[in-house]
């Protein structure tokens, strides 16, 4: 009998410990999901914007567009993706066969207890095939 009493006395101080761990685990999981819901759409928008910049760079050399035409096309794509880019944030280098486009922008994510600023620097290059 003494042995069973020792086991139950040892376990007696640990009641509720599993519930606390479960509660903390659920809180951490909820925080991760909330952060993902806020951040993942921004990352997807950045990827789509960079893809649109790549298409613009490819066609810019074929269509012999000026830097201002390229800037206007990139700015239009940024507006379509809800990217906060100003014309001065879009940098274009190149000539008729080689085009480099880059854009710098930041998005602040409000996570209720912390404001997180994500800095994006999409950059594309189109080299001539010949």
Q: How would you characterize this protein structure?
A:
- A hairpin with a 4-residue loop joins strand 3 and strand 4.
- The N and C termini lie far apart (90 Å).
- The chain is elongated and about 75 Å long.
- The mean pLDDT is 84.
- The protein has three helices and five strands; from the N terminus they run αααβββββ.
- The longest helix is centred in the N-terminal third of the chain and has 47 residues.
- The strands form two sheets. A three-stranded antiparallel beta sheet has the order 1-2-5, covered by helices on one side. It has a two-stranded antiparallel sheet with strand order 3-4.
- By secondary structure, it is an alpha+beta fold.
- Helix 2 packs antiparallel against helix 3.
- The protein has a domain of 87 residues.
